[in-house]
Amino acid sequence: MAGLPTLADVLEEYQLVDAEDRYRLLIDLGRQLEPMPDALKTDATKVRGCSASVWVYPTVSDGRLHFLADSNAAITKGVVALVLSAVQDKPASEVAQTDVAASLAPFELSKYLSANRTQGVPNMIALVKQTAERFASAA
Hints:
single chain; mainly alpha; Sufe protein. Chain: A; 8 helices; 2 strands; 12% strand; globular
């Protein structure tokens, strides 16, 4: 699988389309997540605070973090993919230093999506950062 596009590439396309097409873009982005095996969708991998079910499972290879993720809601899955586009396959130490919320700010998600769809984003970012910090300190 080709993997997720860079956040810069997504933003470039996102800024060219109207609000309705932004939903489609997010849904399409969510479809680009690699499949997450059902066996990994457990209470331990579930992100708290999301109105939809969201699961995130980290792996590390050669010091680089790779996340498997899924959601039972298409737009939420797209938002999950957007978060992961900022950090996927980067060194754990780099992810730990990344201000993911600032990276997502140009997308103005709260302006285009309901609060229900974005309320879990800070929790997902925190999970990604905590995972990165744990792997970076173990390296």
